[in-house]
Write a structure and sequence with these properties.
Aminoglycoside 3'-phosphotransferase, Chain: A, domain 2, alpha+beta, 3-stranded antiparallel beta sheet, 469 residues, globular, 5-stranded antiparallel beta sheet, single chain
Length: 469
């Protein structure tokens, strides 16, 4: 749990922001940031204090660095406002428009998601042990829900959120001490996804835009692999491969092309270490498209999914350990909740992590898989039987999909998952081999996983039904 903002005060000269590859265009903010006007340069916390004063906050207002910021929205600050003896804490954040090029769409989806959670929570979450919190946005003093400001760096969208109290996060299950405690956290993460999915199931996805055009479109990823394996280097070579949607096409076009020299491309595409993984990816395409076909046929629902269900986006109560919230609502998009489920289980049950070079160590942690499934199926009220029957497939599909993405990116020259200065040049090759190996391991335990889901689903049906979506 974070200490109080007042206890974490330090001299402004020591306050620094950090920069990741996704936000290199704003690298000048690594040490200092331009103010709201075209005036003098300020330290980030001074800028944040002035921006926070535009929101409906009590005085006095103080801004501090927030080391727990994520890797995308780098301009994130802890704000303390109100009586000095008992200030309330908030998070001030600028949406990274280098990553999310349509920030107003991001905010529209975020606000709809918050409204849906609050509306359904009032109807469904009546048990005394429930601690679920939806994010709360603080409006501007003029009543607007967020701030758009234009300065010499361009237009920026800022939002202010109440910092959810008595909550903590985990970067990975490895941070949790003890096997039983790790399984408890995994079970709670599964329960949290079920709560979130049921609460948002009624959202209208009409007009909901994908904040990252092409993201989670398995056909796009396979067409990129097909194009890269053909060695295509110009748009003229991409007949029949590019997406029809002009926005998706514009966003993804360069990732259909090879960007390394012919000699380096040959070295990569003819790498004997990758030969069987290339064959595995190509041979598994039909299976990889299963979720898309199911949505397109109408056999499963298309809802407003979270889009990034890694463990550190879940908040857990510091009092009880129970799941408290699912945060980081920047990637809400139309898809099936099975993609959220598959991504969460894929990441949690991979005991080796995503950069392991010894592929023998890439194994499926079955107790963790089981715990997440117990949490989800014990809490969901809206999942259909058809969707539940695809839960095992979904975990495999997302591992395969991510493997295809890493593989294509390595072969074309790392144009999407860009490498940092300290990264090895074959990092995306390693990542591809890990995910495709994990896909194989998940396929190998398919019968066990299906029996598990069937058992837990039968137990769910035997219980008294709760509040359905």
């Amino acid at each position: 749990m974070l200490r109080s903002a007042r206890d974490r005060r330090r001299p402004r000269a020591e306050v620094r922001t950090t920069v990741t590859e996704a936000a290199q265009a704003t690298a000048g903010a690594q040490r200092r940031s331009v103010g709201l006007e075209d005036g003098p340069i300020e330290y980030p916390t001074a800028m944040a204090s002035r921006i926070a004063s535009r929101f409906a906050l009590p005085s006095p207002i103080e801004a501090l660095d927030f080391p727990e910021r994520g890797n995308i929205n780098l301009h994130t600050f802890l704000i303390a406002a109100g009586p000095p003896r008992a200030p309330r804490e908030y998070l001030l954040q600028r949406i990274n428009e280098q990553v999310f090029t349509r920030p107003h769409s991001v905010m529209k989806a975020m606000m709809a998601c918050i409204e849906a959670q609050n509306r359904r929570a009032a109807e469904c979450l009546t048990a005394p042990e429930e601690e679920w919190n939806a994010i709360e946005l603080v409006p501007l003093r003029n009543g607007e829900p967020y701030l758009e400001h234009v300065d010499r760096r361009g237009a920026g969208v800022w939002r202010l959120m109440v910092k959810i109290p008595e909550a903590r996060t985990y970067k990975s299950l490895g941070e949790v001490a003890g096997a039983e405690e790790r399984l408890f956290v995994a079970r709670e993460a599964g329960r949290g996804l079920a709560i979130y999915t049921d609460l948002t199931a009624g959202m209208d996805v009409t007009g909901l835009e994908n904040p990252l055009p092409g993201y989670r479109d398995t056909r796009v990823y396979y067409n990129q692999l097909r194009s890269v394996l053909a060695g295509n280097r110009s748009v003229e070579d991409l007949e029949g491969l590019l997406p029809e949607d002009p926005t998706v096409r514009q966003s993804t076009e360069r990732h259909f092309l090879v960007h390394v020299s012919p000699a380096e491309y040959r070295r990569r595409v003819e790498d004997p270490d990758l030969a069987r993984f290339i064959d595995l990816a190509r041979d598994s395409e039909d299976f990889g498209l299963t979720l898309l076909r199911e949505m397109e046929s109408g056999r499963i629902r298309r809802g407003a999914i979270h889009g990034d269900t890694k463990l550190d986006n879940f908040l857990f109560s510091t009092r009880t350990g129970r799941v408290k919230a699912l945060v980081d609502l920047d990637t809400i998009m139309p898809h099936t909740w099975l993609a959220d489920w598959g991504d969460m289980v894929r990441s949690l049950c991979n005991v080796a992590g995503e950069k392991e070079r010894d592929l023998e160590r890439v194994q499926v942690d079955r107790p963790v898989y089981e715990a997440v499934a117990e949490g989800f199926l014990g809490a969901t009220r809206g999942a259909t039987e058809r969707e539940i029957s695809l839960m095992t497939d979904a975990v495999q599909i997302i591992a395969l999909e991510l493997g295809v993405r890493f593989l294509s990116d390595y072969l074309r020259g790392d144009s999407y998952f860009r490498l940092g200065p300290a990264d090895p040049p074959d990092l995306n090759k390693t990542r591809a081999m890990v995910q495709l190996t994990l896909f194989e391991r998940l396929r190998a335990c398919d019968a066990w996983a299906r029996a598990l889901v069937a058992r837990l689903s039968a137990a769910r049906r035997s219980e008294e039904p709760g509040c359905a979506s």
